[in-house]
Amino acid sequence: MNERLPDYLKKEILKIKSRKDIFETSKIIKEKELNTVCSSSRCPNLHLCFSNKTATFLLLGNKCTRKCPFCNIEHMDIETRYTEPASHALSSATAAVDTLEPQKVAYAVKTLELKHAVITMVTRDDLYDGGADILIKTIKEIRKTSDCKVVEVLTSDFNGNIKSALDVAESGVDIFGHNMETVERLYADIRPSSSYKRSLNLLKTVKQEKPDIVTKSGIMVGLGEDDGEVFQTIDDMIDNGVEFITIGQYLRPSLENIPVQRYIPLNKFIEYKNYANKKGVKQVFAAPLVRSSFGAEKFFKHSY
């Protein structure tokens, strides 16, 4: 186990944190009382993204119904975990859901003049549709009120509710993302309430049912996996229809999160990228500070 940050990472993080022109983005986010995964997860790229007037909007609150030990987002205790597919609109009984969130996010997208909007979510196993309704309304509101060219979503696994995933995919998104996060062997420790095969099946089904949508997924490294397991996970993602892949170094958000097992050398990220490219992946971002939505606009820059 190695908790000492390598010099190249220290320099890169310091360079990012020196960015000062983040005021406008922060102001709009605070004005509309929005959540971003940038802040909630303590992303090291926050200053860079905000200074470029970009952010990944976090829907359905800032507390998650799961408690993955790598994640800094707060945990919400629940009594009910819905397993049946959603068959109707979001119930008014779910008081924790901000029904005005779609309009607030759309306002931010328009005001920041975003050409590529990234929308993610906390996992909401307490909602029968996993929160799909709010995502769908947000996507449609962005399309209706702004000139945004590309809408990308990064969803939960909806607790296996494929109907919710497909409803989101059919609502006007260009990129459908769902992260595998880690290799299969580590799921019991890293994603204890999730399923490796369930996540793969979600990605596969979305691609099969909506072939025109780009599918995207990503993993963290440095959690205790070996290179063979990374390559196998890349193969599994490709075999299940994933076209864009991100690979980044896990960095411990706080002392309450699991420690880093190792810092991956820079040449290894090049190796992972080359492997995925040779396997036919359209776009691969692999570097220490790469995150699932960081630099997302570069994937689709030809569309603007």
From TrEMBL:
One of its GO terms (biological process) is protein lipoylation. InterPro entries: Aldolase_TIM, Elp3/MiaA/NifB-like_rSAM, Lipoyl_synth, rSAM, rSAM_sf. GO terms for molecular function: 4 iron, 4 sulfur cluster binding; lipoate synthase activity; metal ion binding. It is found in: Cytoplasm. SUPFAM superfamilies: Radical SAM enzymes. It comes from the Bacteria. Residues 50-282 form the Radical SAM core domain. Its main location: cytoplasm. CDD domains: Radical_SAM. Belongs to the radical SAM superfamily. Lipoyl synthase family. This is Lipoyl synthase. It comes from Candidatus Acidulodesulfobacterium acidiphilum.
